[in-house]
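Fold this complex.
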Amino acid sequence: LAKTTQPISMDSYEGQEVNITCSHNNIATNDYITWYQQFPSQGPRFIIQGYKTKVTNEVASLFIPADRKSSTLSLPRVSLSDTAVYYCLVGDNTGANNLFFGTGTRLTVIP
Amino acid sequence: GAVVSQHPSRVICKSGTSVKIECRSLDFQATTMFWYRQFPKQSLMLMATSNEGSKATYEQGVEKDKFLINHASLTLSTLTVTSAHPEDSSFYICSAELASSYNEQFFGPGTRLTVL
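Structure:
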């Protein structure tokens, strides 16, 4: 099970791009990288998932270097409503390995 | 997207009573569901994996006789906290796995349990 390391917290002003990096040095060949967002007193919400290079959807981009030992979640032009905890998970999606939630990164967007 | 519901959203009970929490996948079938517990300002901790038609698999340190899990159908898993005590007060979250190439998990909204 690949352990992940993220910054505990980050602050950003509204309208800025936010990049949250996650380290996963022990990532296995079959592992995918998944990011979730969690608001207080709510369940986590899927943001994006990728295996390598770059993935983009309507809310975020995920950058994964060639060695896959880290990944960066990029949130373009954040707003106050993006204040949340962001979790990076690594696993092979067989149902048992991508369930370890690390500390997460608490993002606070400032007006 | 797939939706997972939990009921109740919050519950307050007296010490020594049992509380049942339901987790339902509303628009898909889930052979596997997961139960997590989250204390304030902390991350989610996996408690157990619930498999339809078979016994749940509990994580180390989680008492199976205290946290009873029943996955009776492909859309419903229940977690019963038996003889609850104040230290069981927490936010309980379930997730259901959508069988696909990514086996994506969808999370419920959580249940806030307060034991007096």
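The radius of gyration of chain A is 13 Å.
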